[in-house]
Amino acid sequence: MGDAPGENMVDVGKWQYKEFIHKITGASIITNTYATFFSLTTDMGLKSIKEKFYKKQEDKATEKLREKFDRYINEPTKVGGCFVE
Questions:
Q1: 3-state helix/strand/coil string of 13-38
Q2: Model-level pTM greater than 0.85?
């Protein structure tokens, strides 16, 4: 610290700027970490819900097709004298 007027103010300004940069950098790292974590968690959650939902739809569609084909497999294809199985 010298005798020049305002020199102390420059030192205080530099110190405040360094402190500000450290706080902002830390807050940015924490915010980005949380955002990444929540994004990954949400993606995994939505993926599992989507898989469960589409699995149920596929099961319903498969069941409907199975019912249709069971009807044709277990019953005669045409009702008539020559096509009765």
A1: HHHHHHHHHHHHHHHHHHHHHHHHHH
A2: no
Spatial CA neighbour of 1 closest among 10, 13, 19: 10
pLDDT tens digits, 44-66:
998 888 888 777 767 776 777 77
The answer to whether 84 and 76 have CB atoms below 8 angstroms apart is yes
DSSP annotation string for 28-65: HHHHHHHHHHHHHHHHHHHHHHHHHHHHHHHHHHHHHH
Reading the block at residue 24, the tokens are 């902002």
